[in-house]
From TrEMBL:
It comes from Deinococcus aetherius. Residues 24-422 form the FMN hydroxy acid dehydrogenase domain. It comes from the Bacteria. PROSITE patterns: FMN_HYDROXY_ACID_DH_1 (PS00557), FMN_HYDROXY_ACID_DH_2 (PS51349). Its cofactor is FMN. Pfam families: FMN_dh. This is Lactate 2-monooxygenase. InterPro entries: Aldolase_TIM, Alpha-hydoxy_acid_DH_FMN, FMN-dep_DH, FMN_HAD, FMN_hydac_DH_AS, LMO_FMN. The keyword RNA-binding does not apply.
Amino acid sequence: MTNIGSGPGRSRQTRVYVRGLGGERPRVPVGPDRLEAAARAKLSAPDFAYLAGGAGTERTMRANLAAFERVQLLPRMLSGTRERDLSVELLGLTFPTPLLLAPVGVLECAHPQADLAVARAAAQEGVPFVFSSQASVPMEACAKAMGDSPRLFQLYWGTDDEVTRSFVRRAEACGARAIVLTLDTTLLGWRPRDLDLGHLPFLRGRGIAQYLSDPLFRSRLDTPLPAPAVQPPRTPALLRAGAELAAKGRAFGLTPTQMRAAAARFTATYTRPDLGWDDVSRLREWTRLPLLLKGILHPEDAREAARRGVDGLIVSNHGGRQIDGEVAALDALPGVVSAAGSLPVLFDSGVRTGSDVAKALALGARAVLLGRPYVYGLAVAGEAGVREVIQNVLAELDLTLGLLGVRAARDLGPGHLVPLASQTQP
């Protein structure tokens, strides 16, 4: 019998269809819309709002998705291969696929095992995981769960440089392959879904595990901060929030007083509105790890990053969570790639499917970070749900390459896309 070829695409399809003969359907919906709906059904309104919401009227979120709709793939016939090579070279390493899991904060909103479940799933699937500064589990625990599997650390630079440096040292010690400095969250964006519910998880001690486990941050807890200008009303809801905060503190060996101080200090210091290019140069001096800048959209910022000696860029608009009405990340990608020269450019924001990954790679991205879909998988089925989402995205990417007539993911380029000028306008 002729070998009809294999790969993650055919393997995943076969597994799903064969199990379907026995009436078994996937635990995690395959379609992006159904996946999001399933996650919404599992989560409380505040938790879903935090994970799914965007800035303002969410025009940027919609623009991210619309940009993928405009880009059209152009297949070639009779040029396929029985197996596709998904591997990519990045940061001096070879990764088995061009997919990474993006840093997402407060994953305990999705599932009690939070970052730990994601770390285990990423390791099992051979996909790098970018630890978030706003994690619900300390980076050391996630690193231990991943063994030798690759991980990176995403850094938010707050107003306390010593705590920032401590995070960098901890990332080095736990085997991070790179530091990812996020540039687009020097202020928290205007997010109506959260505002309408009066819900910021950090005030409840959620998503600040990196801080609660950091010796330098903890050493600050006995130094009082000025009293906040606004005090919460004394209601039963406040008592419940206080109990949640105290329980979180006990898990980290902190008293209720220390935990209240930790939440207050975090919210007062975690953003840095005056972060500048000279800070990037300082960070470059602090670590020998590769340094990636996340949130680049303007070509001139890409050129300046190259002049500052960084090792790579991530084109991103934070999934539409920061500025309402800013440029879609995919629309900005070609200009940044052109300006970046030899710097590798990665991409996130709006990625939902394997064909989306193929489009970003064809537009010049070296690799792609997946965000909300794996979070929804986590909400639906924990670690297993994350694994299913990864498998589905990579399966579709593999099949897309085969149907395009592309032998390797790294071979994707503009020639596999319909030029925008040639597309039929409505």
